[in-house]
Design brief:
This protein is mostly helical. The protein has ten helices and three strands; from the N terminus they run H-E-E-H-H-E-H-H-H-H-H-H-H. Helix 1 crosses helix 2.
């Protein structure tokens, strides 16, 4: 009798990563086809053992369609919480001509423990993450030179060749664990983008209207009363 195949936590993790990658890749292909087959969304999907980083480039409307489709159906329950890193600058060029993905099983960690949870520390870690992500994109652009096979080859050896360009998993876990209004769940941003709020003005909620009770120009009414006397 054959021994049943043992499934480790790593096997489960890799299976979930592949499922999420297929879902994201299918969404990007769908959005690109909606824009007459052009590559309107490009970027990099970087998988860590417990989280993933997704750098997306494209039109605002195309990115919105991609994210809306990503959170629809059963895939929404698989993903969990997603936070958006608020950028402090605009990218001066497009880093990727296509969409790529890579798995990093041994991401770097911070040597020092993050003890403070104030706004200054949050901004510091966000700035560090954005800088490393942008530097990683520059590195892949220089080594890939617009050729997907070269870019994919460079993605296979990130931990060995450029570990200093990879965001530390310690900082990412810190940003996920901190409670701050500057890091809401991405689903909240999508809902605010889609829904138009109904404004409740003060004049619309009072009766009778204030202009019936109060003269528009009290000084003129006072002069008229004095002239009558």
């Amino acid at each position: 009798m054959e021994e049943p195949k043992r499934i480790s936590c790593l096997d489960v993790l890799q299976r979930n990563l592949r499922a999420n990658e297929r879902k994201i890749k299918a969404n990007i292909k769908m959005v690109n086809e909606e824009f007459f087959g052009k590559t309107v969304i490009s970027g990099l999907l970087l998988f860590y053992p417990t989280v993933f980083l997704h750098m997306i480039e494209g039109y605002e409307e195309a990115i919105q369609r991609h994210l809306t489709a990503l959170f629809s159906g059963a895939a929404d329950k698989m993903i969990g919480r997603i936070i958006s890193m608020p950028p402090f600058h605009n990218a001066n060029k497009q880093l990727f001509l296509n969409w790529y993905s890579a798995v990093v099983l041994d991401p770097p960690v911070l040597l020092d423990e993050i003890e403070s949870h104030n706004l200054h520390e949050i901004m510091k870690q966000i700035k560090n993450l954005l800088f490393k992500t942008y530097s990683l994109g520059e590195y892949l652009t220089d080594n890939g030179d617009g050729r997907p096979e070269l870019t994919n080859a460079a993605l296979m050896t990130l931990s060995r060749d450029v570990p200093n360009y990879l965001p530390e998993i310690t900082a990412i876990d810190f940003l996920f664990g901190v409670e701050s209004k500057v890091l809401p769940d991405l689903r909240t941003n999508i809902a605010e983008y889609r829904d138009i709020p109904v404004l409740q003005l003060y004049n619309d909620r009072t009766w009778p209207p204030p202009d019936i009770m109060i003269p528009n120009r009290p000084d003129e009414d006072l002069k008229q009363d004095q002239m009558k006397k």
